[in-house]
UniProtKB/TrEMBL annotation:
<feature type="domain" description="mRNA triphosphatase Cet1-like">
    <location>
        <begin position="59"/>
        <end position="248"/>
    </location>
</feature>
<dbReference type="InterPro" id="IPR037009">
    <property type="entry name" value="mRNA_triPase_Cet1_sf"/>
</dbReference>
<keyword id="KW-0539">Nucleus</keyword>
<dbReference type="InterPro" id="IPR040343">
    <property type="entry name" value="Cet1/Ctl1"/>
</dbReference>
<dbReference type="InterPro" id="IPR033469">
    <property type="entry name" value="CYTH-like_dom_sf"/>
</dbReference>
<comment type="similarity">
    <text>Belongs to the fungal TPase family.</text>
</comment>
<dbReference type="GO" id="GO:0140818">
    <property type="term" value="F:mRNA 5'-triphosphate monophosphatase activity"/>
</dbReference>
<dbReference type="Pfam" id="PF02940">
    <property type="entry name" value="mRNA_triPase"/>
</dbReference>
<keyword id="KW-0378">Hydrolase</keyword>
<dbReference type="GO" id="GO:0006370">
    <property type="term" value="P:7-methylguanosine mRNA capping"/>
</dbReference>
<protein>
    <recommendedName>
        <fullName>mRNA 5'-phosphatase</fullName>
        <ecNumber>3.6.1.74</ecNumber>
    </recommendedName>
</protein>
<dbReference type="InterPro" id="IPR004206">
    <property type="entry name" value="mRNA_triPase_Cet1"/>
</dbReference>
<dbReference type="GO" id="GO:0031533">
    <property type="term" value="C:mRNA capping enzyme complex"/>
</dbReference>
<keyword id="KW-0507">mRNA processing</keyword>
<dbReference type="GO" id="GO:0004651">
    <property type="term" value="F:polynucleotide 5'-phosphatase activity"/>
</dbReference>
Length: 343
């Protein structure tokens, strides 16, 4: 008489399933690399104390470290099309030569994000998350030549009153960029670290080189600000762009990003990734793959029964994850409208 082994816990079992035999989760290499990279670039948040940036009296300059993720697309300069690499998942590029980053999207994509972010602004009555605050800014940037190593002085003024904004005259010094390629998503992203150093406002007799109008909606959440901006530039020729950025903001007044340890790269990257995931085209790509897998299951079953008839839409039932306009995951039955795999 054979002895059967005890059945292991199935999907419906209440037995807990441990993540690993070591009792810890594997290291997220993307977050670890971004955190270490930013720590090195900013010298642990102390870069403003380095001799390179000290003022004449030896004190640090009046400046801020800016860390942000811009959403856009990596373009192969040889083909002038979006980059295509033989990889299957999100990847940090070690070499960005021959690649340019375009931080632009269509007006329809911009509108989609505007609607989605607006839906998150009503207060959360359950108390499970802080309230997201939003504010519109209409500003104009004027760019002047600077005697400081060829960098530009950016003067930001209120669009209507033309009064200079608080801390509105700065020199933006780029420290480093990190390009992240996302083949499964509609966009890639670039993480940038910059210094915004306060500069004297140019004299009224100075002539600016060019200007940039910004119509911006800012959505602020603890530690994070998401900016949706419509930008109009008059140089080299009049143009309009639609931009989406995720920027770190100090958790408290006078705080620094370095105080947050691993929390800040997780917050920056996870919020950027979720914006991708909630984008309509990414949802359709995921649902399309699920639809193809489900269709193959049906084809296999029909083949086993000897029925070689055509598999149509009514033959396939797909249960896929969907995201509604409020960003809530919901189960939806049936194929998403417009998916060719189920036609």
């Amino acid at each position: 008489m054979s002895q059967s082994s005890p059945a292991g816990p199935g999907p419906s079992s209440s037995a807990s399933v441990h993540r690993s035999i070591f009792g810890i989760d594997p290291i997220d290499e993307i977050l670890t690399h971004i955190g270490g990279w930013a720590y090195t670039v900013t010298q642990g948040g102390t870069i403003l104390s380095s001799p390179e940036y000290q003022t004449l009296d030896g004190s640090p300059p009046e400046a801020e470290i800016e860390i942000e993720a811009k959403i856009g697309r990596l373009i192969d300069t040889r083909t002038n099309r979006r980059l295509e690499l033989p990889i299957l998942n999100e990847t940090i590029l070690s070499d960005s030569s021959g690649i340019r980053f375009e931080s632009n999207m269509s007006s329809d994509e911009h509108r989609h994000y505007n609607t989605m972010l607006n839906s998150l602004c009503p207060p959360d009555l359950t108390g499970q998350r802080p309230t997201i605050k939003y504010k519109r800014h209409q500003e104009v940037d004027y760019f002047y030549a600077s005697s400081s190593r060829g960098e530009k002085v950016r003067v930001t003024k209120d669009f209507n009153t033309r009064r200079i904004k608080e801390r509105g005259s700065v020199i933006k010094k780029r420290l480093a960029n990190l390009e992240v390629y996302c083949p499964n998503r509609a966009f890639d992203y670039r993480i940038s670290i910059n210094l915004e150093i306060q500069a004297p406002e140019p004299s009224s007799s100075s002539t600016h080189d060019y200007e940039r109008d910004k119509n911006r909606l800012s959505y602020t959440y603890p530690g994070i600000r998401i900016d949706l901006t419509q930008v109009k530039v008059d140089r080299p020729q009049p143009s309009q762009q639609h931009e989406l950025e995720v920027e770190l903001v100090p958790p408290t007044e006078g705080g620094t990003h370095s105080e947050d340890g691993i929390a800040w790269p997780f917050s920056l990257v996870s919020n950027t990734q979720l914006l991708f995931f909630l984008h309509r085209s990414y949802r359709l790509k995921v649902e399309d793959r699920i639809c193809q897998m489900e269709r193959q299951v049906v084809v296999d079953k029909i083949g086993q029964k000897g029925d070689h008839g055509r598999v149509g839409r009514s033959s396939v039932v797909v249960v896929a994850a969907d995201v509604d306009s409020e960003g809530v995951m919901a189960s939806s039955s049936g194929c998403a409208t417009g998916l060719s795999c189920c036609s």
